[in-house]
Amino acid sequence: MQRNVSVVEDLNGNKIVFIHDIRFKGRQAIEWEDVEMYLKQYVGEARIIKSTNDMVYIGADLPKEYAHSNYTNTLKGTNAKAKANATQGLPEMIEIATNKAHKENFKEKHKRDAKYGWYRYDFRFALPVFDEEGEIKYYNVFKVIMVVKHAEDGKMYLYDIMNIKKETGTHFQS
């Protein structure tokens, strides 16, 4: 599937994934089933986080968790649209993730699928804002936490993205 995504560095040398298309439109009613279907194309892929050399796999449970998690169900407006459209750049986002932090697993329901705990990483991505003629005016930048589970098989799997925060005052001109 065609994706229009690029990775650029800001003035401080921090990488940002730029997503140049809005695949999931509307802020009031994201069709999360469509997002789930889109994510299925990535199942079976793996990417290396360049800052840590960790291999992160995309497992079969990602599409459902990503599209229907408790966190996703709380999203409204711009943040819902951002999470839905972030799917287009997930492979690149895995690669540029930074600030690895570990957390033990405390929930019984994740006893096997996160046997060795959870990792959180930070990354940033940008989405376009269009004018009335359909031309890109500028890009909004978002900070996100990527949640990765360390499973019983010893592999690390992308689980979800959370804590989506639009950076105020950070706009990139097209």
Describe the protein.
The chain is α+β, with helices and mostly antiparallel strands and 174 residues long. Helices cover 21% and strands 40% of the residues. The chain has one domain (5-173). Strands 1, 2, 3, 4, 5, 6, 7 and 8 form an 8-stranded mixed beta sheet that branches. It is globular. The two termini are 24 Å apart. The model has no long low-confidence stretch (mean pLDDT 89).
Structural class: alpha+beta
Order of helices and strands: EEHEEHHHHEEEE
Counting H and I runs of at least 4 residues, what is the number of helices?
5
Q: Radius of gyration over alpha carbons?
A: 16 Å
> What form results from the Cα inertia axes?
globular
> Number of domains in the coordinates?
1
List the uncertain runs.
Answer: none
Mean pLDDT over the residues: 89
Largest sheet: 8 strands, mixed
Bin the strand percentage: 35-45%
What is the number of strand segments? 8
Q: What level of helicity do the residues show?
A: 10-25%
| N- and C-termini, Cα separation | 24 Å
